[in-house]
Amino acid sequence: MVRNPRKTAFCPGRDNAKLPGNVSSVFVNLKTVLGVVAVAVLFMFGGIFALASVYEATRLVVAAIFFAVGFGILYYLTKKPQTIVQRLEVSGQIKTATLKCPNCSASLDASQIKIISGLPYVTCSYCGRTSELVEEPKW
């Protein structure tokens, strides 16, 4: 069964969970550059405070804090995102139901189904309406 999507800011035909390619890559590059600069500055001040700890012992604590924050930022910059793959295994044959557009009653193509914010949406190729897919109870 297909039902209308909830009242949210949604652009039909676009995956709203991601930024456009150019904007997201510029943001990632800017984040990486700023992070590397911050790590370099923190390590530099950590080294200066470590050398200055000869005169006052509390500077060694400040140097350790600078190094810890620098390593924390470095870890954040180098960690890779975790990819989640979902697979469906069925034990026997399954029957597929035809999907119909609630607006124009045209048959919906299964290749047009997209997962957006964890919910499956399908776009009608005839009228362009985007609707949420909902599984009906079997009883």
Task: Describe the protein's architecture and organization.
This protein is an alpha+beta fold and 139 residues long. Among the domains are: 21-78; 98-134. Helix content is 38%, strand content 11%. The protein has 2 helices and 4 strands. The chain has helices at residues 21-52, 58-78, and strands spanning 2-3, 113-116, 119-123, 130-133. The protein has a 4-stranded antiparallel sheet with strand order 1-4-3-2, with no helix packed on it. α1 (21-52) runs antiparallel to α2 (58-78). It is elongated. The two termini are 14 Å apart. The relative contact order is 0.18. The model is unreliable at 5-19 (pLDDT under 50).
Summarize the structure.
The protein is built from two helices and four strands.
Give the ordered list of helices and strands: EHHEEE
Main sheet: strands, sense, barrel: 4 strands, antiparallel
End-to-end CA span: 14 Å
Q: What's the helix count?
A: 2
Strand proportion: 5-15%
Structural classification: alpha+beta
Global Rg: 26 Å
Shape: elongated
Spatial strand arrangement across the major sheet: 1-4-3-2
Helix and strand arrangement:
Blueprint: E1 2-3, H1 21-52, H2 58-78, E2 113-116, E3 119-123, E4 130-133
Helix pairs in contact: 1-2
Which tags fit this structure?
38% helix, single chain, 139 residues, alpha+beta, 4-stranded antiparallel sheet
